[in-house]
What does this fold into?
Amino acid sequence: MRALLFALFSSVALAEEVAAPVVDFSKGRFEFGTYGRVGIGTDLSGQTGRSANIVSHGPRLIEDPYAELELRREDEFGPVKSRVVSTIAFFPPFFHFNGQSLQSVGLRNLYAEASVGDGFSAWAGSRMYRGDDVYLLNFWPLDDLNTIGGGVRFGFGKTQLKLHAGLARLDLPSTYQLVVNNDPVDFGTVSVPRLDRPRLIESAKLTHEFEGLGDVGLRVSLYAEAHELPAGVRRSTVTGDESVLPADWGVMLGGQATVWHEKQFAHLWVRQTLGLATTDELTMPTRFNNQLTTRGARSTRLAMAGGWDATHVGIMLGGYLDFVRDAGISETSSGKYDEGALSARLQWYAAKYFGVAVEANVQRRVYALVDAQGSLRGGTVGQLSVMPYFSPFGHGLFQRPQLRLVYALSMRDAGARSFYGVDDPFSRRGVEHYAGISVEWWFNATTYPQR
Amino acid sequence: MRFLLLALFASACLAPPPDAKAVPLTTHVDDWRDEVIYQVLVDRFANGDVNNDFGVQAGHLARFQGGDWRGLENHLDYFERLGVTTLWISPVVRNVETDADFDAYHGYWAQDLTETNPHFGDLTALRSLVKAAHEKKLKVVLDIVTNHMGQVFFYDQNLNGKPDVYIGGSGGTSPVTRSTEYDPDWDSRGVQVFTSLGVAGRAPITFFDLPETYRQRPKPDVLGTADAYHGLGRTLDYERPDQLLMGDFPGGLKDVATELPEVREAMVESYARWAELADLDGFRIDTVKHVEHGFWQHFAPAVRKRLADQGKQKFLMFGEAFDGRDDLLGSFTKPGEMDSVFYFSQKYVVYADVFEKAHDANAQRGTSQIAWLWNQRPTNWSNTPQPGGIGLAPSKVPVNFIDNHDTARFLNNARGDVKALRNALTLLLTEEGLPCVYYGTELDFAGGNDPANREVLWTTGFDASGETWQHLARLNALRKQHVALRRGDTKVLFSTQNTQAEDDAGLFAFERSGGDAGEAYALVVLNTNGRHTSKTRLVTSKPAGTLLADALTPGPAYTVGAGGVLEVELPAQSAIVLVPR
It folds into this structure.
């Protein structure tokens, strides 16, 4: 034992000897990055314009404002690079809209990451951990995790392996409960966590970039997630009755292929979830099998995105299909649905700083709910939009900032109207207008790399 | 390859479930006397789908417990094994969710007659239940309410635009008064506005708009208007016809103006629609004595005709008049009204007075009460089948029961006397009429008044090993086997006023034969006293030398003596059902 301790001590001492270089932090730098979008519009009948989407990831023509401010510290010393990233996110409504000075703010990144050469990096902290998106739908169809944890990346030439594990424990009745106990040492009470069910998520992503295809790039990724939720006990604060919430788990398997050539690119994703992984980590499942778990839940997703940029025009495409089935025993359920969206945007670079975008899209959701005639309840919305814009930094599908005037015409069928509450004008109107102004920007943000 | 992809895509897409569509209406019943009804409170029988357990507070009986139609469907074999043949399910329509910290788990606080109560499932689940029941030869009867809706409005008596509960009085010598705008007392002028200067005309009816509890303007639309309600306040005196018919039901349940033609049509449309949507076999109709006869004379024929036009005959409609007066019960069976009513007079005169008190000689009444009551039925109840009805005279098909969800359970009143319960069940299943068993009776449930009598059943594990369960199953099998017990006429052979130490105390005997049973024969003898063996001589309609055997408990044969005489001797609280050997 003593020999073992000595050996350990020696190794630590040796490590100190080796890893004790003086780092000159004065050469480091602070970076500022941001992503944001702010828009407002009217429905031309005097009310605030709002999104007509009926699917989970509908077109982003009319979307809520959102902004991220990112402050980073970056240092470099020999082969070692490090950064500390903090990102504050602002959620609507903003003060100038509702006059409320209390703003919804979230800390979406707060982590440190360090790399040694190209072969290894590690991070730990709170992080948005994402892959590629479908821009037109504001949608990350494969890897999009928000946890507190850590990860490593191993690089082997053109192949990368990323591993990550993190926790998310939402303040929801099914995941967290404080109860009051008598204070064991004094008068009064103490609060005790009676229920604490963090979701543990592990992910792995293996990516290989193929060579030898000339000007064409090809990247293929395999991706997997495992989700685990421990059992817990929830207590009625009135009667003390306790109910057991069983452990749960789920997995996701998916893949992505991306090809690009000069200013053209295309992504294709496929994803299958089982059990708990069918519900993302920022929500909790609300429909279960009769054992109160999500075993039996599943979803299948196909998604695509693409872009083609030329001198005078650019085209973007985006779309997805989701087949979602909850774990409930009932064949009819709002937790069982098919949905999808397809969107195409054409940008005409009319002048050096000005352009016009035209978008057409369609979205549809069908629930496993039936009406009295036995037909499934489904709804469809189609949209056409024209967006003249000012792009001070010139042309490009992803050139930002972009200041836009937006007109969108939305058409919803009777099924889509039936998805809204009876007092909602959307439940009565088949045609919707939106006229507004918006701006979108991003630069130098880790979560929104320059494209 | 393209076809393969298309096929894969199509198979991944949703399709309507097989039970989503309505089935053509058909008649599933031959003779309602062949049926045994099992009354089930859906919320309490079995939980088949946890996803509709909204607001459940397990173990607290005034709250939702989680039972649903899927749960019933999952346990149809339970009913088959028990031998009951018809399910009477609690109301299916959407209710005011909760009121004064009590939940509408029972279904009697209707808010929307056009939608299902989401706690129990959707239309597909209801259709699936009925279809699966029919496949097992079980029938389904739906509980409906036309007299009142849930507490969907308040009377704004002080015109301040909100519901108030107040206690008045100067604090000096003036009397303290208490009033609630949710459920004010009867006022024949209509509930009044009042101020410090006195009354000031009718108080406006103000509908709630609380979507979170479905406490909002009712549907169909005609029921969402103030004109559709009497607005006279809570019934205080049930002996006064105006209050009985037009007063709000206790608990603030708002009395519907069923005399209005548009209301009548709405009720026919709303409820016939459910029968059509789910291929139901009948209605149990709530609180019929609180609705004028004219309504029933419109409602019942209209429903019968509408369903008959679509192929459904013998649609049973039986009413609940919570009253011990046999003539009042019978009044609802007059031409054009109900096929039958609950035999409440029998519940009191027979099951409460005779069977529940088997151990108290001073409290127990003699079995002569049974004969006395039964003799009144041909006079008080209609002897003519309803036109287009079930084809049976109401007097021949009373809905017999020993307890239900509105009364304390038999065992509660009988202080746990399970022998009394089993003896009562023997009469229930052998007497003339349509037997109706309240869920949990077979498991010796013993709850007191509402909601204690609305126990959760699935926590018992559906245990079929108990003696009462076995006894009831045996009786159901016996009834199925012997047509005399189902369709035979009744002749009382013996009854007595004796309840003390007399040799024949508590004995009761009746024959079931003839009528639609032809030559089939059964002789039922019960000893209702709980203290000693009783004996007597019966004069049967059978010739000397006829051998009779106890079909309930196998044993030595009984031989009819000269003049049809049969000596019987039965231990305390026992029965024999003799059939020709």
The first helix of chain A runs from residue 2 to 18. Chain A touches chain B at residues 236, 239, 241, 243, 287-290, 292, 300, 323, 326, 328-333, 335-338, 366-370, 372-376 (CB under 8 Å). Residues 11-15 of chain A have pLDDT under 50 and may be disordered.
